[in-house]
Design brief:
The structure holds three protein chains of three kinds.
Chain A (H helix, E strand, L loop, with lengths): L2 E12 L2 E12 L3 E5 L6 H9 L8 E4 L2 E2 L5 H6 L2 E4 L11 H9 L7 H6 L4 H13 L15 H14 L4 E5 L7 H16 L3 E5 L3 H7 L2 E6 L2 E6 L1 H6 L1 H7 L10
Parallel strand pairs in A: 3-8, 3-9, 6-7, 7-8
Antiparallel strand pairs in A: 1-2, 1-4, 4-5, 9-10
Helix pairs in contact in A: 3-5, 3-6, 5-6
Chain B lengths: L1 H30 L6 H19 L2 H24 L7 H23 L14 E4 L2 E4 H23 L1 H11 L1 H6 L4 H27 L8 H13 L5 H22 L5 H15 L9
Helix pairs in contact in B: 1-5, 1-8, 1-9, 1-10, 2-3, 2-4, 2-8, 3-8, 5-6, 5-8, 9-10, 9-11, 10-11
Chain C lengths: L2 H26 L7 H17 L4 H25 L2 H21 L1 H4 L15 H24 L1 H11 L1 H6 L4 H27 L9 H14 L4 H17 L7 H15 L3 H9 L12
Helix pairs in contact in C: 1-6, 1-9, 1-10, 1-11, 2-3, 2-4, 2-9, 3-9, 7-9, 10-11, 10-12, 10-13, 11-13
Classes of the chains: A alpha/beta, B mainly alpha, C mainly alpha.
Chain lengths: 254, 286, 288
């Protein structure tokens, strides 16, 4: 299997803070990789560097062999990258359905002129409903975002990200704030999508779910990569356990 | 000699802009609101200062009294106008502020008349000569006054408990609140200080031109908005420097490019130029 | 129809074209512009100069639209560089810059005294009004239409959260430029029509107060709502006429109204009406 995502020597400095220091890893096509580490390790920064919301210094960031480091965010999205946010960012002026419909219509809005003459949304709406059903929130499809519980909004993030038909899905703490049942359910949904061929990179603190679903782990601590490999191997390492103890007491699985 | 005179002219206006702009940037730093109505407070300061001086004959009494009154009104504006709409999208506060400003200008016109008021006995008009340059006492008073007030403010913010609490809140309101600092009180303080300074600036300009008239807030307000962007929205030091820089650029600019560009447009031309090169302003928020 | 009422109706229609244009930029796409009057002015001055040079009306109006749209796109480029709060002030700056240049250009643009004796379109007052009415109708229809298209959908996303829109593959910069191009072209058209209406233009017709007036028509009507904006424009243009006794207080009422609407009903009249007739399953996406 070839590397879909390949990042080499990524470093990010904010002011005096070294958010990331020389991190390299790759993700193979069809893989389910989880990025873990204590708070402040640089995981979200890494995803933001991949999507282009942050400009890193690096040797390269490659998506399917193409160097994307100089590309604007929307171009990377058009090449098949999708992201869900840690703190949900739904379009608050729209309904759940419209949030996803917009993303489904990503090809329609690629060209301004074409967007100006395209009116019909029915096809896209249908697809959007199916995606909402996939994550079990189609009952509220026509509701506005306002007042929706976090569980619904987190699943909306996932549905919307899937709507752009990505090749690589980046998930930033998709399970945070969900109760045990919801989290397990959503994790299963993500696993199913992954088995259908979508490559997934997930940041998560919910270690029990992470260990259950991931094929491979990359561990960050203080901006550096400290471990990489199969979950069972990685979690046995003393330096990985040390990184968590004292910082993540609520979530550590012994 | 012309250069020196222009420089001094520029610095004097720069000091005045600084007094107005500081209040603007303080409000922005804390609330993310472009407080256009601030200019109305500037004008009100001029009116009150002039009226009290004319009534009592004492500028020394008028200055602190007018500034304090304007400061209080600033706090009232915060409570009645801004506090209820803090959760709304930013254009709401902006347009509300613009509406308030327009209403204030019109009230000045309707209450005090469209042609403006003058001092019965314009104070500080004596001339001072040194090194071949002629200045009026009021020019020196403005520079001295600004330096004292702004310098005092800076000292207070570094060396008193209140000042430190204030700076902490501007930096990170949530953190400050967790330390027990009352964010609401800090907001009131911000509005009081910022408005009082603007009121003072209004008095200064009334002394400079011996005139207060209803539209006097307009032009300085627009310029000061440009200044706070240049200085880095929320960055007080940047704003002070940008004020002086702009005052000087205006003074020189009027001479050299006044044929092509109206004086008031110079500020904005400069702003647009700078923003195109450095979108975060001359000094981004520290 | 009486001459005075006809003139008033004409002005309302010109203002509607202006306001629909600003609504495109600020309402649909969320880019707050405090300098819209500058584009009004560019359209007016372009038309005035071309008309005085003897060129025919239709050509002048089209040229005004195109030129204004081009300048508008360039100004739109500045919006790409700066953040939201900076944008409001930058557009305000553009407005003052325009005024500053025009005021000083005595040779070509008439300076403070403006341009007078602009030739007429050759239409009588009633026909001219019909023309302006039709154009205002077309502009409004265009606004309605655009809202229903995918471009309108993309605008909504950009206005709501442009960073998230980018992540969803929306070319945010291109859409912002499109909004500026379209919205300012409409302002240019309004300017050209105003030029033929008044036959005499001065820089102060296109100052900051005018920018604020147009913005207030949009805000009071309901930012983003086409119907609301039309209604708001008509209301604010006609209000001082219906209450002659307040004509001296016109600006005061403007200011107070702007403030009151934003303070108590920020979604404008359209929002109030929507809330009044609230449908239980109503979604904001359906609002026109």
């Amino acid at each position: 299997m070839t590397a879909l995502l390949d990042v080499k020597a990524v470093s990010v400095h904010f002011g005096g803070v070294r958010a990331l220091e020389n991190v390299s890893f790759h993700v193979r096509e069809g893989e389910f990789l989880s990025l873990i580490g204590p708070n402040g390790a640089g995981k979200t920064t890494m995803l933001r560097a991949v999507t282009g919301m942050v400009s890193p210094q690096c040797d390269y960031i490659r998506l399917a062999g193409r160097d994307i480091n100089r590309m604007p965010t929307h171009r990377r999205a058009q090449l098949g990258l999708a992201l869900t946010h840690q703190l949900v960012r739904p379009f608050r002026s729209m309904t759940l359905l419209d949030n996803v419909t917009l993303a489904v219509g990503h090809r329609r809005i690629r060209s301004i002129l074409r967007a100006m003459v395209s009116v019909s949304r029915s096809v896209e709406r249908q697809k959007a409903r199916r995606l909402l059903a996939l994550v079990d929130i189609d009952a509220d499809a026509d509701q506005t975002v306002a007042g929706q519980p976090l569980g619904v909004l987190k699943r909306l993030e996932v549905a919307r990200a899937l709507a752009t038909e990505p090749r690589l899905l980046l998930l930033d703490e998709p399970l945070a704030g969900l109760n045990h049942v919801e989290a397990s359910h959503l994790a299963d949904t993500i696993v199913r999508i992954n088995k259908d061929g979508l490559t997934v990179v997930m940041i998560e603190h919910n270690l029990s779910e992470v260990l259950r679903v991931s094929q491979r782990l990359v561990v960050l601590d203080n901006g550096r990569k400290i471990a990489e490999g199969v979950p069972s191997d990685v979690m046995r390492r003393p330096d990985v356990r040390a990184a968590y103890v004292g910082k993540e007491e609520a979530h550590v699985v012994s | 000699m012309l250069y020196v005179e222009l420089l001094i002219q520029g610095l004097i206006y720069g000091c005045m802009y600084a007094m107005i702009a500081v209040g603007l940037t303080l409000v922005y730093g804390l609330l993310r609101i472009l407080h256009v109505a601030h200019a109305g407070l500037f004008a009100l300061g001029g009116y009150l200062g002039l009226l009290i001086t004319n009534a009592t004959g004492s500028l020394l009494l008028a200055m602190p009294l007018a500034a304090a009154l304007v400061g209080v009104l600033g706090m009232v504006i915060y409570r009645l106008c801004y506090q209820p709409i803090l959760e709304r999208p930013p254009y709401v506060a902006l347009i509300a502020s613009i509406g308030l400003f327009i209403a204030m200008e019109e009230l000045f016109r309707l209450i005090f008349g469209p042609y403006g008021l003058t001092y019965n006995n314009p104070p500080l008009q004596s001339l001072i000569q040194f090194y071949g340059i002629t200045l009026r006492a009021v020019d020196l008073a403005i520079v001295a006054g600004s330096v004292i007030l702004l310098g005092g403010l800076a000292w207070l913010s570094q060396n008193t408990r209140l000042g430190i609490a204030w700076r902490a809140t501007v930096d990170d309101p949530q953190m400050a609140e967790s330390f027990g600092i009352s964010v609401i009180k800090v907001r009131y303080l911000n509005f009081f200080i910022g408005s009082a300074l603007a009121g003072m600036a209004g008095i200064f300009i009334s002394l400079l031109s011996n005139l207060v008239e209803p539209t006097m807030g307009g032009v300085p307000s627009y310029k000061c908005l440009a200044i706070i962007v240049l200085g880095g929205l929320g960055n007080v030091t940047g704003t002070l420097i940008a004020s002086l820089v702009l005052g000087v650029i205006e003074a020189f600019g009027t001479i050299y490019i006044g044929d092509y560009l109206d004086r008031d447009a110079i500020a904005f031309a400069f702003l647009i130029l700078v923003l195109m090169v450095r979108p975060q302003g001359l000094f981004a928020r520290g | 129809m009486l001459i005075y009422e006809l003139s008033l109706a004409t002005v309302v229609c010109i203002n509607i074209i202006l306001a629909v244009g600003l609504n495109l930029i600020s309402g649909f796409c969320g880019q707050i512009s405090l300098g819209h009057a500058a584009f009004y002015g560019i359209g007016a001055y372009t038309t005035a100069l071309m008309a005085k040079a003897g060129l025919p009306g239709p050509i002048n109006l089209v040229a005004a639209m195109l030129l204004t749209g081009a300048v508008g796109t360039i100004v739109g480029l500045t919006s790409l560089r700066v953040r939201e709060d900076f944008l409001a002030i930058t557009t305000m700056g553009v407005g003052f810059l325009f005024l500053g240049i025009v005021r000083q250009q005595e040779r070509f643009l008439g300076g403070e005294l403006g341009i007078s004796s602009i030739p007429s379109l050759g239409l009588d007052k009633v026909t001219f009004f019909m023309l302006v009415l039709v154009l205002a109708g077309l502009a409004t229809a265009f606004g309605f239409y655009l809202k229903k298209t995918w471009m309108g959908f993309a605008f909504q996303a950009v206005a709501d959260d442009e960073d998230t829109a980018r992540v969803l593959s929306v070319d945010v910069s291109a859409y912002k430029l499109a909004a500026f191009a379209l919205g300012t072209s409409l302002a240019g058209l309004a300017g050209g029509l105003y030029c033929y209406f008044a036959r005499f233009i001065v820089p102060d017709d296109f100052g900051f107060i005018t920018s604020i007036s147009v913005l207030s028509m949009v805000a009071v009507g309901g930012i983003g709502s086409v119907f609301g904006v039309v209604f708001g424009t008509a209301l604010l243009t006609l209000m001082p006429e219906f209450f002659r006794f307040i004509s001296d207080y016109k600006l005061l009422v403007y200011g107070a109204l702007l403030f009151a609407v934003m303070r108590f009903a920020p979604e404008g009249l359209a929002g109030l009406i929507h809330r009044f007739f609230q449908k239980p399953k109503g979604s904001p996406g359906d609002a026109v």
